[in-house]
Amino acid sequence: MTSSPAPPSTTRRLRDRPSAALVRAGAVGGGGALLAVLVGRPLVLLVVVPLLVWAFVALLRRDPEGVPSARVAASRRIVEEGSSVAVDVRTGPGVLTAVTVPLTRHSDLTPPHGSLAGDGAVRIAVRARRWGRIAVGPLHVLASDPLGASRAQVEVAPVRVQVLPDASVLEAPVEVPTPIGVSGVHLSRRRGDGTALAEVRAFRPGDRLHRVNWRVTSRTGTLHTNATFTEQDTDVLIVTDTIADVLPAPWAGPDAPSSLDVTVRATAAVARHYLSAGDRVGVFDVGHLLGPVRPGTGPRQLRVLTDALSRAARDTGAPKPARRLRSVRPGTLVVVCSPLLAVPAIEQIGVLVAHGADVVVVDTLPASVGDTSVLQGRPLAVDGRASERFWAEAWALRRLQREETVRELRESGVSVTPWEGPSSLAPVLLSLTAARTAPRRRRS
Amino acid sequence: MRWIQRFVDPLARGLLLLRTVSPEQAGLRLLGLAATVAALLLTMPGGLFSGLGPALLSLAAIAGLIASTLAPDSDLGLLAPAAVVLALVPQAELTVGRAVLVALCLLAAHCAWALAATIPLHSRLTRAAWALTGRAHLVVLVASAAGALLVLLVSRVDLGPWMLVPAVLALAALTVVVLPRRER
Predict the structure, then answer these.
(1) Where are the alpha helices (DSSP H) in A4-83?
(2) Do B2 and B86 belong together in one domain?
(3) Which of A39, A44, A46 sits opposite B100 (nearest CB)?
(4) Does B81 touch chain A (CB under 8 A)?
């Protein structure tokens, strides 16, 4: 999903100033020439001639109007996770242009330290490793003549790039337990116009003639028709828990995702999966980082969703009360993305189940958090230093406590599965569909 | 152990910073350093510290060299070439060959420092940038050769005391050209 290239931005013409090298060449060359003349030593003049010539050539090449202005353009303003955007800086031919870009979090620069010099044009590539909004810059542009005798500097405003979350293709069936829409691709239990055969029954007034089963009719002597199940679409609601962003353990690696990263990526993948099947998908955030997204269908809804997800920022402000979803249409497929730590989020799952929704919980707690395999009976060393706070042990205990919550959810009929990529939800969705035909227990 | 850490940590940070220096910057600074040292050695064949005068000039040159290596844009970089020129002035035994070699070393050092001052410490240069700066320096080299030939030819002309007149005129013209102009 990309946009057209952004229009280039312009700055005023740059006024260049003599460098220390030009002053050095003039002072040593001129002073040496004067000394050579005064003492009558032409060979000393021979020694300083190259410096004088260097200064003379630099002054001849210098444009009194200054250096052409720096123009910055980005190849794209909206990219996907893992994609690159090229930032071009142009001055003019024959101008030695050095561009420096500060290192940006969760992105890789080419060249690695973000500084490159070229002849009138410089291209720096930025590869975004994580969704969100990144500001490439401010760009520091230094334009000088090829000898380095005069230079001009300017700082250009950052180039802002929106990085969409990776909406990987979900390797899961599109069937839902209880389709509640009007017309779609999901097989429902309701009889009506469809393709899946429900039964062969006696013809009634109003039945369509092309549905008549002539084989059974000729055998029985009475007109019989094929009754079919209807195909419907459904509502899919993705409930995200952004109350807290749980960071991965320090030893998990620099690119290990936090709970918010997993939430955003899982939301994007699930939304894409069901939107491609023609269902209505909406988002409700129990926290305050993602704005609510009204249910919608089609590619436009996917763009709206991924745009809302990429605009989320890690909130470091004061904690706010969690939002509550009061009601949901019975039969709605609800996918809850939560680390299952905050009480409001767990209570929200209960409310959704009580209202008759088909709930699937995606566990977004990073696997490295509370991992007991790293515990060795003594303080863990992180970056060569033994921790004095026992965070790993504390999280291990918290994870054990959380197992109780997960067990209770499963016993009440809610599937809980950790997000491990595009194939995570397949077994859960299949089991939900199988459960549709199983004998039901009254939920009291 | 903490006092060892206080000593080792800054050293380790400095070494890590060195790793970020681009090959281009490292090459330019090494070239400037080597060319300046070569110019010094050619200027004082008897030794850098063979007398009080040479010792003082050598110390000044070394100070300027260190300043230029750490900050190529430093004004102290003027000390090294100035010391070389001052050391050559009283030398009656200076030959054309040695003068040309010293001139080339000074030019190489000056060009290296000037280019190193233009680009950041960790900046890379594209091929186009090398070609651009190479073409400009080639012009300087050719013009320097022409200028040197002119100096050698003119030096053979003996006008006696009247030699001062064209010399002063040439200096005045040079000063007028080199003087900074008021910017519009």
Answers:
(1) 20-39, 42-61
(2) yes
(3) A46
(4) yes
Instruction: Kindly tell me the burial class for residue B119, based on how many C-beta atoms sit within 10 Å of its own C-beta (0-12, 13-18, 19 or more).
Output: buried
Residue A237: strand, helix, or coil: strand
Which pTM value belongs to this model? 0.75
As a whole number of angstroms, the distance between CA A196 and CA A198 comes to 6
CB contacts of B96 in chain A (<8 Å) are: 43, 46
ipTM: 0.88
Q: How confident is the model over A394-419, as pLDDT tens digits? A: 888 899 899 999 999 999 888 898 88
In one letter, which amino acid is A424?
A: S
Residue A150 has pLDDT above 50, yes or no: yes
Q: Is the pLDDT of residue B102 over 90?
A: yes
What percent of chain A has pLDDT above 70?
82
- Which residues from chain A sit within 8 angstroms of residue B84, using beta carbons? 47
CATH code of residue A150: 2.60.40.10
Q: Which residue of A has its CA nearest to B149?
A: A46
A50 contacts on B by Cβ (under 8 Å): 103-104, 106-107, 110, 140-141, 144, 147-148
Q: Which helix (H) or strand (E) holds A196?
A: strand A196-202
Which of A328, A336, A339, A326 minimizes the C-alpha distance to A366?
A339
CB contact under 8 A, A28 and B131: no
B69 touches chain A (CB under 8 A): no
Residue B104 sits in the same domain as residue B176: no
Residue A386: which domain range?
235-436
